[in-house]
Amino acid sequence: MSVLDSKVPKGPLKTKWTDYKNHIDLVNPANKRNIDVIVVGTGLAGGSAAATLAELGYNVKTFCYQDSPRRAHSIAAQGGINAAKNYQGDGDSTYRLFYDTVKGGDYRSREANVYRLAEVSANIIDQCVAQGVPFARDYGGLLDNRSFGGVLVSRTFYAKGQTGQQLLLGAYSAMNRQIARGKITPFNRHEMLDVVKVDGKARGIIARNLVTGEIERHSAHAVVIASGGYGNVYFLSTNAMGSNATAAWKIHKKGAFFANPCYTQIHPTCIPRSGDYQSKLTLMSESLRNDGRIWVPKNMDDVMAIREGKKKPTDLSEDERDYYLERRYPAFGNLVPRDVASRAAKERCDAGYGVNATGEAVYLDFASAIERYGKEQAKIHNIANASADKIYELGAAIVKAKYGNLFQMYEKIVDQDPYKTPMMIYPAVHYTMGGVWVDYNLMTTVDGLYCIGEANFSDHGANRLGASALMQGLADGYFVLPYTIGDYLSHEIRTGKIPTDTPEFDAAEKEVTDKIDFFVNNKGSHSVDYYHKKLGKIMWDKCGMSRNAKGLKEAMVEIKALREDFYKNVSVPGAANELNAELEKAGRVADFLELGELFAKDALEREESCGGHFREESVELDGEQEGEAKRNDKEFAFVSAWEYKGEPGDAVLHKEELEFKEIELKQRSYK
Amino acid sequence: MSGFFKSSIGRKYAMALSALFLMFFLLQHFAINILSVFSPNAFNEASHFMGTFWAVQYLLQPVLIFGVMYHFIMGFILEFKNRQARVVKYAKNNGAANSSWMSRNMIYSGLAILGFLVLHFIDFWLPEINTKYIQGDMSGLLADGEGFRYYEELTHKFVNPLRVGAYVLAFVFLSLHLMHGFSSAFQSSGVSSMRKQKLQAFGKAYAIIIPLGFIFIALFHHFNH
Amino acid sequence: MNLTLKIWRQKDAQSKGKMVDYKVTEISEHMSFLEMMDVLNEQLINTGEEPVAFDHDCREGICGMCSMYINGEAHGPDRGVTTCQLHMRMFKDGDTITIEPFRAKAFPVLKDLVVDRGAFDRIQHAGGYISVNTSGNTQDANAIPISKHAADEAMDAATCIGCGACVASCKNSSAMLFVGAKVSQYALLPQGQVEATDRVKNMVAQMDLEGFGNCTNTGACEVECPKGISLENIARMNREFLSANIKG
């Protein structure tokens, strides 16, 4: 029997969550007033959890490194949020959303969690509309939907290309209401640097005031980590510059198991890298694949001519183009799931067909969509024999209405007009499905320590479907954690205020200040970014879109060596007691340098291809699926949960076996 | 409503309302003055009516004086407070990139108009008050009793080229002030953009035609007498 | 290209600051403005100087964290972009670029180019929300149809990223575009009507308390706003405020 207990309640899948909620222990309102909860991170998950917990009556303290909760990186999500509302009447249901999510995750997620997620998805939309989130509507005044990769229904709700922003502002507004009531105390420009455990339970955190450098102690009866993913381990990603794994990694070092670190989502539609100075990558919403067709030239001569600027992509005729997604996956075409689309782009570029100077770009072309919409509009407006220009004009207007802000963003960055010439895109690190292991209650392996949103591992398996991250963050924060945390806190009503002048807090604070003192006093020769970029390169080259045993072993050795060099030669200017961005980065990169090694170790251990994790050794060798990823359910249908043992390389693997009762495990075919 | 006029938006409304009132007054003032170009008699009749009718003198005149004073004093207070809202100034500020000169310099065009008003009061208003209420001569007649005095006094004032120059300059500033002030008053009053677009053209015309008309009157009398 | 940078340096909130000149070389025109700043900072770190502190996070123009006043304009000379989306192709070889923090009494400088925009948060606390509990049985999202026109207009107002460029650009450091956008979003939606009166009064009161200047309708905010928030939102707030005060 594994040490891991997922605590999934008994009973049929469909009624599990309702039955469980009905029997969960509650805390009476008078007692909630005496219970403190710390929430680290104020994105969709943290923000919504903080607001809801405060609404219930708990005293909540929130922490975020940004200057306002409203700036958490959830804000950058563009495309939308899924919900099984079936407003379009296209056959959607809770079961279908559940099924799509499990299948999309390549059968590596926990069935009960995903079903619960699908179940509460509809509530999220109701809640957000009530909060004043301005979702897109049709002319009848009802909510509009769009369709996303990997599914066959339209269940995605959106607010222009800024859905994440609007949902986060909704959660932030709910927080504001509680801040005004005095139930939330926000600590902005604060970074959690460690968790404090007392008698095995999480009882508080050590945080640094990023403006003054002051180290602060905060106690609570439960600690919730909602600090997002660790995509920045790659240096270049679509994450924000400040996105970091420190909170998640520190709790891992204090006993929380870290699950499936190798599951990373490489998003197919990002703006390609333009040079070595690049600091981050920009995502273009997946919704673009609804209307954009992805291609590279068929002939190598054309590739070369385009790279040298002798030919333009628009010069190539239809039969000189290779619409490789449509060719390989006729059923889903350009709307295959993200992992599949990304790997296919890499496959073409590795074969030499990349269309920009770096050889790492493919085209995303809107010409057919513009023509299609144009003809449609000409018909609607009764324009007989419309000229090609007129059709283009009408079509471009529709495309502009749908994707205008994305097109503008692209033009600002690349300095090319995507209405006239196809966009160039390339995959980039975007989301991490792996994260802190949690049980059905979203509690980690440390009592009283919870983890929600992207920071945990639970719902997306090995690959996340589009528009599901926002859904999960808000489901955890609004509708799951506020119930399940009561089960734990109901035993805390007699605990009383937790003092911070205890040896446990002393020890944790000392650990934190020692580390900071080390950094500011280590007069090394390289900047933090120097190491971060080196780490990123190892990760991208050896733990990127495709991985093999040799590369992963090398990566582990190289990351370890890089970490040792970092502690010898890193240079952090400035002092500890001031606003010091380099010091902040140093702490975060130090954690990435450990996490990266565990990442490689996990990837090495998982000798199968599944979702975002593609092992070159595990592919279909023949048949219709030749060359596609080959999953190995017999040996690898488990969650890898790693226990920290002093060095990332020494981490001990615990397996949570995944049982599928409602869904038959099948090869994911999008052909 | 008690706190309304102490709030920032309440003061915007107050500025806008006093401005709208002053713009209406200006129109009326212009309408009477332009008569002097066409018919000295009509001008005299109108001036006498305005100068002696009780409702104008005892109701509208105090309201006007209050409106003018309020607009100026509140303008100064707001300008002072607005300056306080930025303690350290920018080393480099490119205001021309995002806003019109007129909108950024209302205080200066306003000060120029205030300077003009002082001159104008000394020229016309104080002598009027003196004649009517201190000397007690409500007849509106010339000293020799031959007809009304208003047209005479008007033309007399525009003899001196320096004064005419000052008037012309002041009206240029008035135009600049109105150029922003007109639409600003409607924006402050919360008029929606649909209606504002139609008002915009009217406002521009008003801001040009009225001051230009006053300039025309001044020059007309200067060169014709 | 090679550039001269004049940058505001200030040790902390208490210290006095000054403009300091720096030189950067071999800047690519495809770099973003912040990547150019990264180059400068790397250079400063390698020569043992303290790097320039500046706020930034998402670097894709949505989080609203970046906040530089470049050559006399908030977010620099380009339109419809934040500082992080400003590209060096907007400048020429040999240019001198002046970089200052967003300046307003209500936005005190914390260090170099980093300012404290907490005033915006406090205005939001005063009423930037609809009071609805997370019950799980709120009425169905389609129960109240909202005209597409109103929903789109609310969305346009809600697009505000709270960066503070409006305050920085305004000659009066007025926050009315920000507050107007927030008031408008809720005023345009049926869900926002119940609390409309208190909301606008409380938010305006907090705005006044924070020490922002008053709006004189120069329109600079609208031009410099990276998200194109319309002045119409200020007019709407004025209307809402008046009607709220008449209602009592």
Automatic annotation (TrEMBL), chain A:
Instruction: Write out the similarity annotation.
Output: Belongs to the FAD-dependent oxidoreductase 2 family. FRD/SDH subfamily.
Question: Which is one GO molecular function term here?
Answer: flavin adenine dinucleotide binding
* NCBIfam families assigned: PRK07573.1 (NF005749), sdhA_Bsu (TIGR01811)
* Residues of the active site: 338
Q: Provide the topology term for how it sits in the membrane.
A: Peripheral membrane protein
- Any one of the GO BP annotations: anaerobic respiration
Q: Where in the cell is it found?
A: Cell membrane
Q: Which reactions appear under catalytic activity for this entry?
A: a quinone + succinate = fumarate + a quinol
Q: Which SUPFAM superfamilies match?
A: FAD/NAD(P)-binding domain (SSF51905), Succinate dehydrogenase/fumarate reductase flavoprotein C-terminal domain (SSF46977), Succinate dehydrogenase/fumarate reductase flavoprotein, catalytic domain (SSF56425)
- Indicate yes or no for the key word S-adenosyl-L-methionine: no
Q: Which cofactor does it need?
A: FAD
Its protein name is: succinate dehydrogenase
The record's annotation in PANTHER family points to: SUCCINATE DEHYDROGENASE 2 FLAVOPROTEIN SUBUNIT (PTHR11632), SUCCINATE DEHYDROGENASE FLAVOPROTEIN SUBUNIT (PTHR11632:SF53)
Automatic annotation (TrEMBL), chain B:
Transmembrane ranges, per UniProt, are 55-78, 106-126, 164-185, 205-223
Q: Which GO terms describe its cellular component?
A: membrane
Chain segments annotated as coiled-coil in the UniProt record: none
Q: Mind listing the UniProt keywords for this protein, alphabetically?
A: Membrane, Transmembrane, Transmembrane helix
Give the source's domain of life in one word: Bacteria
Supply the name of the protein.
Succinate dehydrogenase / fumarate reductase cytochrome b subunit
TrEMBL record, chain C:
- Any Pfam family hit: Fer2_3
Molecular function as annotated in GO: 2 iron, 2 sulfur cluster binding; 4 iron, 4 sulfur cluster binding; electron transfer activity; metal ion binding; oxidoreductase activity
Q: Which Gene Ontology terms describe the biological processes this protein takes part in?
A: respiratory electron transport chain; tricarboxylic acid cycle
Keywords on record: 2Fe-2S, 4Fe-4S, Iron, Iron-sulfur, Metal-binding, Oxidoreductase
Domain (4Fe-4S ferredoxin-type) spans 151-181
Q: Which family does it belong to?
A: Belongs to the succinate dehydrogenase/fumarate reductase iron-sulfur protein family.
NCBIfam families linked to this entry: dhsB, PRK07570.1
* Protein name, entry field: Succinate dehydrogenase / fumarate reductase iron-sulfur subunit
Tell me what organism the protein belongs to: Cellulophaga fucicola
